[in-house]
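Long-time lurker. I teach an intro course on protein structure, and each term I like to show students one example going from raw sequence to a predicted 3D structure in token notation. This year I'd like something fresh instead of my usual example. Would anyone be willing to generate the tokens for the chain below so I can use it in lecture? Attribution to the forum is fine with me.
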Amino acid sequence: MNLGILIVEDDREMCRFLSELLAEEGYEVAVVYDGPSAVEKYRQESFDLTITDLMMPRMKGTELVQRLKEIEPDALVLLITAFGSIESAVETMRAGAFDYLTKPFRTDEILLSVSRALEQRGLRMELQRLRKEIQSRYGFENIVGKSDSMRRVFEMIAHIGDVPANVLIIGESGTGKELVARAIHYNSPRNRNPFIPLNCAAIPETLLESELFGYLRGAFTDAKRDRKGLFHEASGGSLFLDEISEIPVNLQAKLLRVIEDKEVRPLGASRGEKVDARILAASNRDLDQLVGEGRFRQDLFYRLNVIRIELPPLRERSEDIPLLVEHFIQKFSGKTKRRVQGLTEEALAAILNYHWPGNVRELEHTIERAVLLGKEEMISGNDLPPQLLNKRAKEGLLEEALSNRYTLKELERIYISKVLETTKGNKTEAANTLGVDRTTLYRKLEEAKTKE
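-- Reply from a regular --
Happy to contribute to a lecture. Here you go:
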């Protein structure tokens, strides 16, 4: 389908020239000779670009721009003027025009301006499409569940979208904390602005401050240029701080100051800069306990815990498992040529009886593996990992430990090794599963090396 251009010009010779030129370039062209006719035409049809003269008898081009913007806020207008003064240029751009050209102009000039305007329109439409796609993907209706506990989560997400308060999301690893955070963002007035996620446990302590707050050139040895921090990047939108419990105590004080003052001071700067980012924080650890132990600041906890959402582990909402299985089968079926229709009774029983320590994330990986590696239309027990199939497989490690009389240290070392196998070497995820911080995990791995 060709792009449509509306030409508005009281000089009929200029109209003929522009319409013939643009038609030869493959555009669909409509012509009117004054502003009121252009407004009426625009109400009846949709145009990708309007080209209008600035000075016309019944309506000036600047007024026409304003009227078209009332009909379509994203209306794209290119103004032509014989008065190539600074004043007319300023007036044109203030009216909301994309660009202006002064008469007389060359053929290549008008074609270039038209091309640039339509390119911007294409980019704008693509951005709108992507925004709709993202909002659809992360809408809270895509968080699967029918249990009472999940219904309460859905109601909370819908309720707090318009509330500009910080949110703390609590739940075990794999329960979907980031998905909930994205749903909150994309169902809020901030959804046209960035959602910036940061896993606080994945960034070394020495880099976390500069990552959050930014720095100026020369602030430290490797600071070759100024860099905006994530608070700046998320300004107007939401900053998701996952594993907030892993932020060092000395940095917690600076984070508290930013939240209270809504002002960030980059490393090396002498004064702060205003930011406006909604904080969505998450943790798989008990922050109340960490506050009691003095490992997390109480005042920062209160600032983050304005609204609290607690995500239940999968083992406590087993009625949601069949829905989740169906959702994941549909999600991954497009990656294989065979049509997967569901689970055998054996496979469903195994999935329902399993305790799912890795929660929804573990279930998703299990179904993905079964869909991609299975050969039949129905997922059977042969397509599932062995630990799901029988109690003996689940208790294999304990039986081995008892028969070989392992010490607690030896059992711990073996278990850590098994967890690292399931996380494919991801130490951050392994630490979350084990319920320890990364420092403790690294120390235990070093201890295991020295004993080998």
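Some talking points for your students: The radius of gyration is 30 Å. The first strand starts at residue 4 and ends at 8.
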